[in-house]
Design a protein that fits this description.
Layout: H1 2-13, H2 21-51, H3 56-63, H4 68-81, H5 89-98, H6 103-115, H7 118-128, H8 130-153, H9 180-215, H10 218-225, H11 232-240, H12 247-259, H13 264-276, H14 279-285, H15 291-315
Helix pairs in contact: 1-2, 2-7, 2-9, 4-6, 4-8, 5-6, 6-8, 7-8, 7-12, 8-15, 9-12, 11-13, 11-15, 12-13, 13-15
Subcellular location: Cell membrane
Main location: membrane
Protein name: Permease family protein
Length: about 325
């Protein structure tokens, strides 16, 4: 249905002749934009309903005084299903530490939340299938847990810049038990908010991907970033650090890179680096962490993402 619609729009509305490269690129662009945006609307609504059951205070209560293994695992799982908005990131981080949750466990949550967010999971599922999506979730969870353990081992609480957490309450926090009508209203509002933030990234990401799909020879990317190139994964991780985007903008590009012969581990390393190890994220974290802690965080994350990239390339070659 979507394929027919994209072909109809390209041929009859844009009047682009079939069997031409431009027709292929435009039809590819329209198909992917419609598919991704529909997936986002449906799945983000469902995830936001689930999210409405978990307030910041409830997560603190569940994580406090748990066995280290279960605390890290639960923190990673909460990071996956509860993507808190940016306005609560700093007080959430400090709030976890202040109620006695170990710093390593807090880092596990902090890493898992952007790295394994609902947008990335939805798009990977839609483009590559459930196997790749689950591998992505599992590997991201392992990175978050291991990084949290390592940072916790350094006893780095003294490397925090303690700020006041008496900030204005974020609108995404729950202060009471919600009715289903309130949960639905929250889900609609949250879905609109996320959609408004990511739709442009989707369009740009798909646009770049469509151009690569139609005009960049496959041999070019295989020669420089194919599975057999040992340097491809760490290079992709480094390239992702200065970029500013989110999963919605990167994953359409990941899809095309894989289609052109780039190793899926290499492409996913780029995506993970952009979403969880980007320079803009460092600027935010710099407000609450001293330089040494930032370097420990960045170093462990870089190694973890690189290892996962190699692992994906080896498993899926």
């Amino acid at each position: 249905m979507l394929h027919f619609l994209s072909e109809f729009i390209t041929t009859n509305l844009f009047l682009i002749l079939p069997d031409t490269r431009l027709h292929e690129v435009i039809a590819y662009f329209i198909y992917d934009v419609i598919k991704i945006l529909l997936l986002l609307i449906v799945m983000i609504f469902a995830v936001s309903i689930l999210r409405s059951f978990f307030s910041k205070e409830k997560i603190k209560a569940i994580l406090a005084k748990r066995h280290p293994f279960w605390a890290h695992l639960l923190a990673g799982l909460f990071g996956i299903i509860t993507p808190f908005c940016s306005c609560s990131a700093v007080p959430l981080f400090l709030g976890f530490v202040e109620v006695g949750i170990p710093l390593g466990v807090t880092f596990t949550f902090l890493i898992a939340s952007p790295m394994i967010n609902e947008v990335a999971l939805i798009l990977l599922w839609g483009m590559f299938g459930i196997k790749i999506a689950l591998l992505y979730v599992f590997s991201g969870l392992i990175i978050a847990i291991v990084t949290g353990y390592i940072i916790g081992h350094f006893k780095s609480e003294t490397l925090l810049n303690i700020l006041s957490t008496d900030n204005k309450v974020c609108s995404c926090e729950n202060k009471k038990v919600l009715t289903w009508q309130e949960r639905t209203g929250y889900a609609i509002k949250y879905t609109k908010n996320i959609f408004n933030k990511v739709w442009l990234y989707v369009v740009i990401g798909v646009g770049v991907g469509a151009w690569i799909h139609g005009y960049v020879p496959a041999d070019f990317l295989i020669n420089y970033a194919g599975v057999g190139k040992w340097y491809a994964v760490p290079l992709a991780t480094l390239i992702g650090i200065p970029l500013y985007s989110n999963a919605a903008g990167v994953i359409p590009l990941v899809s095309v890179l894989v289609e052109k012969g780039v190793g899926i581990g290499t492409a996913l390393a780029l995506m993970m680096s952009v979403t969880a190890l980007s320079f803009p994220e460092f600027m935010i974290l710099k407000k609450v962490m001293k330089k040494k802690l930032l370097l420990i965080f960045a170093g462990v994350m870089f190694v973890g993402i690189t290892i996962v990239g190699y692992l994906f390339n080896w498993l899926l070659k």
